[in-house]
């Protein structure tokens, strides 16, 4: 049986705390797709909250595609294809859950699909100021790699990739540099473990962007995103 814990007064609003608990049960599979949630009264007792707070939590979960409520039927967990995986708060709730390897693999697939094109666009459209910022970030990454400073590497690598998306000149690419920052950090922290920084691969991207070579920028990005360069454990397709 799924269990919940009482929420406490804190800097975070109560309804957000409740939504996070339920969401993480759903994302981890503890609350399976199609599962009916306990009644409103039961949930209020389990969390020690008012109906008003609970209803705000349900609205938040519903807006993220995790649940749906129907009169006389109750509230059920929706199937995975309804979940809004690009929602930044949902990505935050995914953090540190057991079994997140599958999400990291899927995120790598998304990066492979869009990031090489983003690098190509940045090589053509980045402003002088943006190129300067990318240059500073790469210099910081080089220093971090030489000093084996994983924290500094992760911070600057995150900003490096975000800046590339912001430099594409295409408004539809820009959100990937912002909305996905949470999972970018998780992914970069994960892939940098053990000191494998892929500095040469990042240098190739950096030089291609600086020289305006879109073809080389695309190839360099694809090379960085090869599975061999990412420290992810194998996961099943099931």
TrEMBL record:
Keyword Transcription tagged: yes
Keywords: DNA-binding, Transcription, Transcription regulation
InterPro entries assigned to the protein according to its UniProt record, in alphabetical order: GntR_C, TF_FadR/GntR_C, Tscrpt_reg_HTH_GntR, WH-like_DNA-bd_sf, WH_DNA-bd_sf
Pfam families attached to this UniProt entry: FCD, GntR
PROSITE patterns found in the cross-reference section: HTH_GNTR
Residue ranges occupied by any HTH gntR-type domain in the UniProt entry: 12-80
Protein name: FadR/GntR family transcriptional regulator
Organism ancestry: Bacteria, Pseudomonadati, Pseudomonadota, Gammaproteobacteria, Vibrionales
């Amino acid at each position: 049986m799924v269990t919940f814990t009482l929420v406490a007064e804190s800097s975070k609003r109560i309804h957000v705390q409740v939504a996070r608990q339920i969401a993480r049960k759903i994302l981890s599979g503890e609350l399976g797709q199609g599962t009916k949630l306990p009644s409103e009264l039961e949930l209020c007792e389990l969390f020690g909250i008012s109906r008003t707070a609970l209803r705000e939590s349900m609205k938040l979960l519903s807006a993220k595609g995790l649940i749906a409520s129907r009169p006389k039927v109750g509230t059920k967990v929706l199937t995975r294809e309804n979940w809004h995986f690009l929602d930044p708060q949902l990505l935050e709730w995914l953090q540190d859950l057991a079994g997140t390897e599958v999400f990291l693999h899927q995120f790598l697939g998304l990066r492979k699909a869009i990031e090489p094109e983003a690098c190509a666009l940045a090589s053509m459209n980045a402003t002088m100021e943006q190129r300067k910022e990318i240059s500073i970030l790469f210099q910081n990454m080089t220093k971090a790699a030489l000093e084996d400073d994983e924290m500094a590497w992760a911070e600057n690598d995150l900003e490096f990739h975000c800046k590339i998306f912001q430099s594409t000149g295409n408004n539809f690419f820009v959100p990937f540099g912002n909305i996905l920052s949470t999972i970018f950090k998780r992914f970069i922290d994960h892939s940098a473990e053990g000191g494998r920084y892929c500095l040469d691969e990042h240098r190739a991207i950096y030089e291609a962007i600086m020289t305006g070579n879109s073809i080389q920028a695309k190839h360099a990005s694809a090379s960085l995103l090869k599975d061999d360069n990412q420290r992810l454990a194998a996961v099943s397709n099931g």
